[in-house]
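Collaborator request, handled under Task 6.
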Amino acid sequence: MQRADQSIRNKLLVARLPVMPQILSKLLALCQRDEIGVGELAKLIAHDAGMAVKVLNVANGAAYNRNNRKIGLMQALNVLGVEMTKTLVISESIFQTFNSLSPGVELEGFWAHALKTAVIARELARKMSYPHSEEAYLAGLLHDVGRLALLGTGGYGSNFMARDDEHLCSVEMSSMGMTHAEAGAWLIERWNLDSFMADSVRYHHEPIGRLKSAHPLIRLLCLAHLLSSHRTDALEGMGEICGISDEELKAILDAVEAQTRTAAAYFGISLGEAAAPAAEYSPPAKSEDKRQARLADEVRNASLVSAAAQSFSRCSGRELLETIARTACVLFNFDDTLLLLNHAKALTGVPVTENQQRISEISIPLTDESAAAESVQKRQITFIRRDDSLSIVDQQLLRSMKTEYLVYMPLIAEQSCLGVLAGGLSAPQAAELWDSERFLKAYATQAAASLKSATQLRSEIEKNIAKINKEHQEASRKVIHEVNNPLSIIKNYLGVLDDKIARNEPIVEELSVLNEEIDRVGRIVGSLASQEAEPETTEINGVLKDVVRLFSISRYLPSSVNIVVNTGEKPEEIACAADPLKQILLNLIKNAVEALPNGGTIEIRNNGRRIQDGRAYCELRISDTGTGIPAEVLANLFSPVRSSKRGENRGLGLSIIHDLVKKIGGLISCDSGPAGTTFTVLLPSAIAKAENPKYAAAQS
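Structure tokens returned to the collaborator:
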């Protein structure tokens, strides 16, 4: 007997508990939605012992519950999350549909009894002020879970259809070495559920007299089982075990009856009483259950589309197109497939195999009267057969695929149609697939979603690469342009050094300038790489004089060009570092020099503080007496454009100046005419806003 008992336990470990098909259908429908909540899932799962056990078993396992704390159904669902719960629902559905536990066994009576017992247990818990009413509900739902598990081991069909009473327990013990109550309790312990729940299941067939001092959950579950199995006229004295009078029990049962009938109606469960035990059980003739058949179709389709989606996710480009076409052949038994993708408002053939190269020559306008275009226009599955009344292009596709029938599956993703998948069929295949529009549509939708995602990803990657390349090129050009300024100064100063060394004159000042310009080269490269402004203040007049000195004593400034500087007597602080200001001035003065090929005057004037739009600035003006800037150039002055200068970086100077001024929080404008050009640069003043009365007045 011990060996037989161990054998049953081993079978119980691998047994899969059946789940109510009505529950699974509703769960599958729920899982199809984009957004679902744990509460919605819990409400459905709480009505089915098999599904509830699966969720609790996984959530209480070592992978999720490392602190060994027992958790209830709602907590378990929160631990697993919606996506894992979806996976469990679909996997259990597939297993139940394609691996029938016991053909011919009617489970509806079992589910009705479990549901009623759960509702009664919860009401008894509330009446007894037991603090865990939902635990009582779950215990009621699972109290006969041992019967489901034993059914899964095989050879239990006749016992499963017998009345659930002491006689059944005796038969189970003699034939299997354990009762369904013991089997259920043992499983609950193995699933790491609460020990009191296991005990309540273990003792729910015990005589009432033995349970007077037992835990409240054990007593109320035993009573709930009895009340669920008896008529209301047999209640006398039953409630004493839980301290509840006969009148209170009748009131509870009246309320429970209504709740149970409402739930049973929702799930389509019959509340008819289970059949009495027979000497030998003969399963009834198998009748087709439309609900079960519909569930089988939904489960199969959902699982196959889900598997296809996983295959699609691992592909891209041409490989994805091939996978979509070939998977369709396998799933729908197509003789052949063609892909026509929407391009420029026309369906264009895309070859996915070597023998389809000429399909790319086919282009069907979406406004065409062909069945292919109509399928896209109406966004519906379309079947056609060889017929002279078809459009020429439809007949051509049928002949190219060498099939009698053809089905068009529009590829719809996020309200846009990406094209159509065409599958070739024989007459028997078409007849078999005729009623599978939902399956065809689900597959096409998943294929379209994968195509769109792959296309968007590829497009996004290409855009990012192009953007990075462009930014890199622009940054490189700017670095070269800006570095050329100090390099030109260094080159000119080296010539000055040669002259001074030849005349034995001191070169300390020139060496200092060279050192500063070399350092500035490094800072230019560093600042363009980091794009971070330095939080400094600079005395503007000192920088003006340094820049003019660089031009004046180097060989860069022609003798025909004169520079005049008006700085004012008072020092002016601006809110930026010296290097950006130096770069701005060098570029503007360099441009002014180039605008005076025949000589002239450059004036640099510090006009002092100025308020604009409530902000304090220092105003600089750099003017030249050249011939002015052409109107067409002036219109796009600060954009990178081609100029008449030679070299890779021509036309970048003013664009860089504009970016530098903007970066430090300044403004720049230009006024140009036949008498010359003036650039006005407003640099942010370092004076605090609160100290500026004009600014304060403007803000008030």
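The cover message to the collaborator said: "The first strand starts at residue 336 and ends at 342. Residues 97-101, 273-288, 642-651, 688-700 have pLDDT under 50 and may be disordered. Please let us know whether this matches your experimental observations."
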